[in-house]
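Subject: design request, 361 residues
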């Protein structure tokens, strides 16, 4: 396996040694890399990473699909682990606590969005857990495909001991990404909700929508997923290549939660919404979306986007999952199997989230 160049600052003052898997360029595969993280400051928490989920976004960033990637890159933003050190001014956590870190590790804290607890929409740009730039220093952030991480306590989440830690990891992205818009629109009993795509995001959307009391339909081109969809909580299943089944759901749904991250025809699904129905876009295809205005304007339909949630809402989601025994369906893998996992993820051959066991690093 090709090696990414090792950091030369292994004995630098104010840093801690770290090891992980990194890519050195968009064309490169992930490979072992030794690097340095900043030593914990007064308000920081140092975490020994136990598990890290694999998100489709990791692949987009690695390939520079959105033109914003910085290398070397250590992906991973579905992180759970154990606190090993806290700064002198940390009050929320102590050594030995189970914690999680999601998609962001800082924000400006002064804009309207931050003041409203929606750091994900920070007007000055949230700091991503990886491929971001730290406020003040400009240092590039490295993610959870590694043995440790240092994060300001305000962006660390508390994790319950009631749930298996490895199955909690995907909640830090797939979980909150689906939970947040459902809470925003107060989805619940009486609502007819369709979930487009039954993957990492989709299976969590089904679990939450069913838990909130909605009538849930899964829309999929894969007929073999019907049994799983209903096991996860869906009440109905529509094969989107079956013309008769599609006709029956014309103007049926109050909400469609679109979790698909590859190119697809949004206009096909708009016709399944009721008047004033809402299409919630969660997947991020590399290509621009194309929407026809006629089915929007003449039926009063709405198209909205959403990403993750704020820190308080993410903690709320984790607490809700602990109280209602909700976790992700996962396949636990060794770090050495990352390339095989990526290949399978691209083929939608995973039920329903890969999680890396960092003990194998």
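Subject: RE: design request

Done. Sequence follows.
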């Amino acid at each position: 396996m090709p090696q990414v160049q090792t950091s030369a600052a292994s004995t630098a003052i104010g840093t801690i040694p770290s090891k992980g898997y990194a890519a050195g360029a968009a064309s490169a595969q992930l490979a072992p890399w030794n690097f340095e993280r900043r030593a914990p400051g007064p308000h920081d928490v140092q975490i020994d990473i136990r598990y890290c989920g694999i998100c489709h976004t990791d692949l987009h960033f690695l390939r520079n699909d959105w033109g914003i990637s910085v290398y070397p890159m250590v992906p991973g933003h579905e992180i759970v682990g154990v606190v090993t050190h806290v700064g002198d001014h940390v009050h929320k956590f102590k050594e030995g606590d189970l914690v999680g870190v999601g998609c962001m590790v800082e924000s400006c804290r002064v804009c309207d969005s931050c003041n409203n607890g929606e750091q994900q929409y920070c007007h000055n740009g949230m700091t991503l857990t990886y491929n971001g730039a730290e406020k003040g220093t400009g240092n590039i952030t490295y993610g959870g495909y590694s043995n440790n991480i240092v994060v300001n306590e305000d962006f660390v989440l508390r994790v319950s001991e009631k749930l298996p830690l490895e199955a909690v990891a995907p909640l830090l992205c797939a979980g909150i990404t689906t939970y947040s818009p459902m809470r925003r629109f107060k989805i619940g009993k009486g609502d007819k909700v369709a979930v487009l795509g039954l993957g990492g995001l989709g299976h969590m959307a089904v679990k939450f929508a069913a838990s909130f009391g909605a009538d849930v339909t899964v829309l999929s081109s894969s007929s073999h997923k019907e049994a799983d969809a209903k096991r996860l909580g869906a009440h109905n299943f529509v094969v989107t290549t079956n013309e008769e089944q599609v006709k029956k759901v014309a103007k049926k749904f109050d909400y469609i939660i679109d979790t698909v991250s590859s190119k697809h025809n949004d206009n096909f699904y708009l016709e399944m919404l009721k008047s004033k129905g809402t299409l919630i876009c969660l997947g991020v295809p590399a290509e621009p979306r194309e929407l026809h205005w006629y089915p929007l304007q003449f039926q009063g339909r709405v198209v909205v986007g959403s990403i993750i949630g704020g820190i308080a809402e993410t903690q709320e989601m984790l607490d809700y999952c602990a109280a209602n025994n909700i976790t992700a369906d996962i396949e636990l893998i060794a770090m050495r199997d990352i390339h095989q996992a990526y290949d399978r993820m691209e083929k939608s051959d995973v039920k329903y989230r890969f999680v890396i066991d960092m003990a194998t690093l």
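Residues 1-13 have pLDDT under 50 and may be disordered.
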